[in-house]
Amino acid sequence: MRAALAERVFIDTNVIVYADDLDAGAKREQAQGILRRAFIDGNGVVSTQVLQEFFVASTRKLGVAPEIARRKVELLARLDVVTIEPSLIVDAIDLHRLHSLSFWDALIVQAAAASGCRRLLTEDLQSGRSIAGVQIENPFESSSEPSI
């Protein structure tokens, strides 16, 4: 049964890639736990950008066959998916300028904010920082898995 009031959590590409990386050790286990809970609780959010980045990273970096990576994208699309619209791109440009983020990171943060997520699980940004009302958390910083 899905939790009715579970806080929505945005999951960045690197977390999803670690879930499939056979060489990632403890990070792989943590990432798999995060995704498992996101599906069970129904509170996981990704964007079309994350789905695209996952496909590219899994096929190029991990050597996953395209048909298998495609199936994983189909599964990930069962989470709540934020479509990257032109308005999000323009807002991300503002975040990029105001917070000295890469454009791609700013687009992730903006998608998280626009979807009502107050937390973003990522290894790519400074953990503990809050941008546009979104708290950045590196789920791999400690040995305990973050609650989602």
Notable traits:
148 residues, alpha/beta, Rossmann fold, 6-stranded mixed beta sheet, globular
Summarize this entry quickly.
With 148 residues, the chain is an alpha/beta fold.
What is the helix content? 40-55%
Q: Tell me the span between the first and last alpha carbons.
A: 16 Å
Number of strands: 6
Q: Report the mean per-residue pLDDT as an integer.
A: 93
Strand content: 5-15%
H-E string: EHHEHHEHHEEE
- Structural class based on helices, strands and sheet pairing: alpha/beta
> Radius of gyration in whole Å, from Cα?
15 Å
- CATH topology annotation: Rossmann fold
| Tally of domains | 1
Q: Mind sketching the topology for me?
A:
Blueprint: E1 9-11, H1 13-20, H2 26-41, E2 44-47, H3 48-60, H4 66-76, E3 80-82, H5 86-99, H6 103-114, E4 119-121, E5 130-131, E6 134-137
Helix pairs in contact: 1-2, 1-3, 3-4, 5-6
Molecular structure report:
- The chain has a six-stranded mixed β-sheet.
- It has helices spanning 13-20, 26-41, 48-60, 66-76, 86-99, 103-114, and strands at residues 9-11, 44-47, 80-82, 119-121, 130-131, 134-137.
- It starts with 8 loop residues before the first strand and ends in an 11-residue tail after the last strand.
- By secondary structure, it is α/β, with parallel strands linked by helices.
- The longest helix is centred in the N-terminal third of the chain and has 16 residues, at 26-41.
- The chain has six helices and six strands, in the order βααβααβααβββ.
- Helix content is 50%, strand content 13%.
- A hairpin with a 2-residue loop joins strand 5 (130-131) and strand 6 (134-137).
- It has a single domain, classed as 5'-nuclease (Rossmann fold, 3-Layer(aba) Sandwich).
- The mean pLDDT is 93.
